[in-house]
Amino acid sequence: MVPDGKEGIEKFQSPGKGRGLRACRRFAAGDLALSCPAYACVLTVGERGGHCEGCLSRREGLSKCGKCKKAFYCNVDCQRGDWSMHKLECSAMCAYGEKWSPSETVRLAARIIAKKQKTQLERTVSEKMMLVSELEAHLDKLGNEKKEMMEADIAALHHFYSKHLDFPDHDSLIHLFAQVNCNGFTIEDEQLSHLGSAVFPDVALINHSCCPNVIVTYRGIVAEVRAVKDISPGEEIFTSYIDLLYPTEDRIERLRDSYYFTCNCTECSTKAKDKAKMKIRKLSTPPKQEVIKDMLRYGRNAIEDFRKAKHTKNILLLLICELSLDKMGLVFDDTNVYILHMMYQAMGVCLFMEDWEGALSYGEKIVGPYRLHYPAYSLNVSSVYLKLGRLCLGLEKEVQGVKYLKKAMAIMEVVFGKDHPYHKERMTNSVQRL
Ligand SMILES: [Zn+2]
Ligand SMILES: [Zn+2]
Ligand SMILES: [Zn+2]
Predict the structure, then answer these.
(1) Domain residues of the chain, as ranges?
(2) Which CATH topology does 9-239 take?
(3) Ligand 1 centre and the CA of 61: distance in Å?
(4) What is the mean pLDDT of each run of 10 residues along the chain (434 residues)?
(5) Nearest ligand to the C-alpha of residue 79?
(6) Quick check: helix, strand or coil at residue 263?
């Protein structure tokens, strides 16, 4: 056991929360509190070709795996380093062709099983404070829907990975999938595009708060935890497990659903931001309470409906956004989070359709209210500034573009660190344009 985290944090029993991490020294915003290499990670299928399968770096001119021609690497070292993981999929992808379709959770679980077999009982560098086997599973809280999903995942695991893996018994697999479900991390880039999934056991020790004092970002396959507020020695460190845009009721439901606990952070008890998050439009005759309630229900359903419709044609998606924006706009202010949610989705669709002007106009409406609702150092805010910056530069609005990029960088240098490739890339990009 490593008694104290070398990086100035230690494991402790957090009252009412179980295990947690706390600071042993002072941290200022931007300070690195912890870094943890992935115990196991997987590049999402959609990013193949743009990122190295081994180190997850974003690069041009990667070389293909000669056998499956589906995995790409920076160089021979990355390829060799990844072979023990890639071999689980390489020949299966050739054999199944189009029919090769395990979910990302299944792919990650397969890698964890392989890694466990490889490392046996030895403590890896990702497990200085907590072992993978010690990750919380919350087996007793699983609902039927989740159980069914896990059974389907286990079937897929057997189907696609039987050649190279010795599977543990069924109960152990259920336990593993339950652990991955509540402790798996989604790796995103600086624009919040999904890159893959991973487990970082030490980082999984950090408890949740809707007013977090640290943020987790990724440098290749390493998770980095940086302070986003001043933290005093002895203070517990908290990250946010969820998108913090939404009002208390929504956040609590999400946390209960996915992580099985009720948040009692300051924001959840005071609900201080809820009023602004659900702001009503100023009208000569204010809408009745019933009308507001109905619209809230409509807003929540609209989020769900859009999520379900995600695979339909873009032009239809944009129509869904516009219709719901028109409807909600009768009651909700433009800074209302349900309006913002739909505008953000609309911006995404416009980007996808290469409607740059459309994307820019949605982004400009979003970014101000985002600053209001999100914490000071938020990737949700910096990623919108980044997109706006790039859009403006593309549309030859240089001055405005550089302004946006600078705003993005002011946040990025704290959350990613000044030496992060994402930050450095932007620096050069915007300085060259000045
Ligand atoms: Zn690489
Ligand atoms: Zn291959
Ligand atoms: Zn909370």
Answers:
(1) 9-239, 248-433
(2) Beta-clip-like (2.170.270)
(3) 11
(4) 60 94 97 96 96 95 96 97 97 95 98 91 90 94 94 97 94 97 95 96 97 97 97 98 97 95 96 97 93 96 92 91 96 98 97 96 98 97 96 95 95 94 74 56
(5) 1
(6) coil
